[in-house]
Every structure is written in structure tokens, then in C-alpha cells.
Amino acid sequence: MPIDHYENFPVASLLLPARLREPVEAIYTFARSTDDIADEGDATAEQRLKQLDAYRGALDAIGTEGVAAARGLPPLFARLIRSIIGHNLPLKPFYDLLDAFRQDVTKNRYEDFNELADYCRRSANPVGRLLLTLYGAASLENFPLSDCICTGLQLANFWQDVALDWKKGRIYLPRQDLARFGLQEEDIAASRCDERWQALLAFEVARARATLAAGAPLARRLPGRIGWELRLIVAGGLRILKRIEAAGYDVFAHRPQLGLVDKLAVTWHALNYPRPRA
Questions:
Q1: What is the pTM of this model?
Q2: C-alpha triplet 43, 124, 143: angle, nearest 5°
Q3: Mean pLDDT in runs of 10 for the chain (278 residues)?
Q4: Domain 108-278: which topology?
């Protein structure tokens, strides 16, 4: 389920084996902290980039010094080192997350969907790959499916948060898509939910749903708790998209969220998750 700043992250879920809760929380703390540096408060762009560069320096130290690097790093990284070393986690996904959040400071518009997908590749997909590694399910077959789930969830979050992102001066809707449906930034500024906007959001919701569906077989392929976790996550993302549709695509009037009835529906969907075709 979505969690505050860093969306769709299964933090300390009851479905997680106890031995994995610490590394998952460490990864979450890193992701949320870097996201907050890029997004929260009133720091200047220069100050934000300087902080993110310091995080990159900490990752560099972990890569070269290992456990010894903990002596000179903040507690956040001391905790992260234990998880990286103890579970043999690759550093590249952490660097990718940093690159994405650094981009949030310097880039607030996207020309086309390819640009946006590249951002998702670094802002969302690394999380799924790290979790697969923790579960011992990292493979060339599983990574593309995980990427689809993570990107689909990220897209659902974008369309859920159009109004919030606008207040931050950021638009994730590709300019190419806006132009295709006859819309401009002024329409977002005016919270104009007319037929053009509804057509655009219907298009984006359908793309997000198709992306989630492309990765959904992974949730049935993986056994045990990680399979259940993924089924709930995919069902939650699909439910958010359904809530956007139910609101007539008016994400300006209120942010679509999951209530009790929705969560029950998500659980039902996870319990009745379709099996992959033979």
C-alpha cells in the first residue's frame, strides 16, 4: 500500500519474514530520506544537490571500505551497510535512486513517455530489484516483470498526485501527451477537468494498468510471502487506478485514496489472483 512520501513500499509488512524487516526498513529509510532531500523543505536547489552528492560519497565509501566506512558515516548509512553487507545487496540500485532524486531537483518537465519511463527505471525499479535480491529471487527472468510492477505503481502514483506535483512546480505528464489531447500547462494550473483532461487521464490510466498487468505474473510465480506481498501491491495499484476512474479523472478536487472498502477489495483480489496462462 502507498506510504506517505515514498509510495508503494512494503515497509515491515506482516508478510515479510522477520529476518528481512531490518534490511527492508533500511532501504526504505534511504529512499525516503533522499526523496525528502529532493522534495521537502525550503532548501535551494544547490543545497539539495550538495546533500545528495554527500549521499553519493557515502555510497562510494561503502563500495571501497565496506563495514569500515560506517565509522565516518551518519547512522542512516551505518544501518544500511549492515543490510548491504549482510545480504550481499548490489550498490547500483542505490546509485540509481540517487540519480532519480537528483533529477527531481533539476528537471520538472518530461517531453515524452520514453523520458518518463527512464526516470521510473531509476526512481522505482531499483526498489523491486533490491527486494528480489533480499528474497533470493533475483534473476534475468524476474527483473523485467518486477520492473513493470514498479513502473506501473509509479505511474499510478503520478496520476494520483497531479495536483500535488503541480504545487511543487513539477509535471510528470509528458508534454507530447498533453499536446495530443489539446491540453497545456495552464489547464493543470486551472484544475480544468473537462473532456480533454478526462481523455488524457483515461489514456494514462490505461497505460499504467497495462504496465502493471505485464508484470503481474511475477506475483503468482514467486512462492510464499513474497508472492502474497506482490499480489497485494499489484492489486493496490490497480485499485488506485480504479479510484481515479471512479472520480471521473478529477484528481484536482481530491486525491484518490484507498479506504476500508478498497482495502477489502484489494485483499479479495489478492486471494483470487489469476493464474498465469499455460
A1: 0.88
A2: 155
A3: 41 67 90 90 92 92 77 80 91 96 95 97 94 92 96 95 94 98 97 97 98 92 82 89 95 84 71 62
A4: Farnesyl Diphosphate Synthase (1.10.600)
